[in-house]
Design a protein that fits this description.
Chain lengths: 184, 311
């Protein structure tokens, strides 16, 4: 069952309005993540709003927008934190790029988006832990804990994507229509 | 081989060129971004942690937003359960139902206020036992975006008299230390962070040791720098105290002795504070005139312990 949601943007160029709105949403997600989501008493662990939104945005907008968005939100996260600058920026930038590469390969169906986004969230969680361990030379918990966190984050991503992906696709389509006059 | 080559020839040339150019361009952009991140990591790693410049600005701005978000979200969260009542006033039964819902909401609010008051008074009690001067603060953010930092952000900062390296406690005992400050917020590194290392001693001794994080939220590793002392499970730990850190803050209980040989002894410690439920904390800004010793720990046998602390 594949539902064609909208025509993928093959040119891979960055649209300023869409980019600005997605970046704003991601920055809001970063703040919501640490001050709201992290303290919700949810079973198992927590969803990762930033990775979830970033993966979805990259899947909709392609590798260049994905990499730029990842860089921006990652750097913002680094500035908010007390760890070495550029750590989350590196992980998020790579994640945005790699997920963006799959934008054309997928059929834009919710089913494939579900798998890609969940996988990206799990991979991003593990990459964060790995990069943190490599740079600061100390492990932030055991590998088993990191794996559990990644699996839980991926499950929450799988639960949220069926609602988030169509909503964001509709949002992006609207911003495209708003600038439709300029493009052929 | 031949067929694939033929297929490639069928494709229009300009399409291939467009894709190739886009791919090159996107790779260039990504490579550029990666170079920037690596430069940032290198530069920041060399200069060390600092809360100045861009980071300080982001901390102040985001701290304000986080305080606001916490203030707004909390009442909604605790009264959401009582909002699922029908709000029609067509007859008396509905009006009574509405009154009931209002009263329920009020009760929930009262419960929350009572809980906070209890928490604050037990924090005060602990601070008074050790004669610590504390600044109470609320947790407004937990961790960081990557989920690898064991830190919390609290809504008190330089304006409230805080300084870095101060000990942070809650009603149960040690929480962590202040690592960075903005005007109205502070970032606290929890005891379970891999970079956290705090001087500690066993109850009833003066032997120096330290507790380090890095093994998850529920376990600390205690290292005693004296191989002659035999650490036993059940012994309790308090902070050792130094120029910045106050002495005598309860840390936790030894659960397992892991290494009994060599030059030092290590043991696993179960901390008194559970980091998952942190809410109200106190930052110790003033030291007691004398070392409080072991009197901040809850007495093991109430009658005997009570006699000691009264003197």
């Amino acid at each position: 069952m594949t539902v064609q949601l909208f025509e993928p943007d093959r040119e891979g160029e960055v649209h300023p309005l869409t980019f600005a709105l997605l970046a704003l949403a991601l920055l809001a997600a970063a703040i919501a993540q640490v001050s709201v989501v992290a303290r919700l008493p949810l079973p198992g662990g927590h969803p990762d709003l930033v990775l979830l939104l970033l993966a979805t945005a990259a899947l909709l907008e392609g590798p260049v927008t994905g990499a730029l968005l990842g860089f921006v939100v990652g750097l913002f996260g680094d500035l908010m934190s007390t760890h070495v600058l550029g750590r989350s920026a590196l992980v998020c930038c790579l994640l945005g790029y790699l997920v963006g590469l799959l934008a054309d390969a997928t059929e834009r169906s919710v089913a494939i988006a579900l798998i890609v986004v969940s996988g990206a969230v799990a991979g991003g969680t593990l990459a964060n832990v790995a990069v943190a361990g490599l740079i600061s030379d100390v492990a932030a918990g055991t590998p088993a804990q990191a794996l559990l966190r990644a699996v839980v984050a991926a499950l929450y991503a799988a639960l949220l994507t069926p609602f988030l992906f169509p909503a964001m696709a509709a949002g992006v389509r609207r911003t495209r229509r708003a600038r439709g006059g300029r493009r052929p | 081989m031949v067929t694939s080559a033929a297929q490639r020839c069928v494709e229009p040339e300009d399409w291939g060129a467009v894709v190739g150019r886009d791919l090159r361009r996107s790779r260039l952009i990504v490579a550029l971004l990666l170079v920037i991140t690596f430069t940032l990591i290198t530069v920041d790693y060399r200069t060390g942690e600092s809360s100045g410049g861009a980071r300080g600005v982001v901390h102040s701005v985001v701290g304000g937003v986080e305080s606001g978000v916490t203030a707004v979200v909390r009442p909604i969260g605790r009264t959401a359960s009582s909002l699922f009542h029908p709000n029609r006033y067509h007859d008396r039964a509905d009006e009574l139902a509405k009154q009931n819902a209002d009263l329920r909401r009020q009760l929930a609010d009262d419960g929350e206020i009572t809980r906070q008051a209890t928490e604050l008074s037990s924090l005060r009690l602990l601070a008074d036992k050790g004669q610590y001067t504390i600044v109470p603060a609320k947790v407004i953010a937990i961790g960081d975006v990557s989920g690898t930092d064991w830190t919390v952000t609290v809504n008190a900062g330089r304006a409230d008299g805080l300084a870095t390296d101060k000990i942070v406690i809650n009603a149960k005992g040690l929480v962590g230390t202040v690592v960075s400050l903005s005007e109205h917020t502070a970032v606290v590194r929890l005891f379970c962070d891999p970079r956290s290392r705090i001087g500690a001693r066993l109850e009833g001794t003066q032997l120096l040791g330290s507790v380090a994080g890095g093994s998850g939220p529920g376990t600390l590793v205690f290292t005693l720098y004296d191989a002659s002392y035999r650490v036993r499970p059940g012994e309790r730990l308090v902070t050792f105290g130094s120029l910045d850190y106050v002495a005598g803050v309860p840390i936790g209980e030894v659960t397992k002795v892991t290494d009994a040989d060599g030059l030092s002894r290590t043991a696993e410690v179960k901390p008194y504070v559970s980091v998952g439920t942190l809410d109200l904390v106190g930052i110790v800004v003033g030291k007691p005139p004398t070392d409080p010793g072991d009197r901040v720990l809850t007495p093991r046998t109430p009658p005997a312990g009570g006699g000691d602390t009264s003197g």
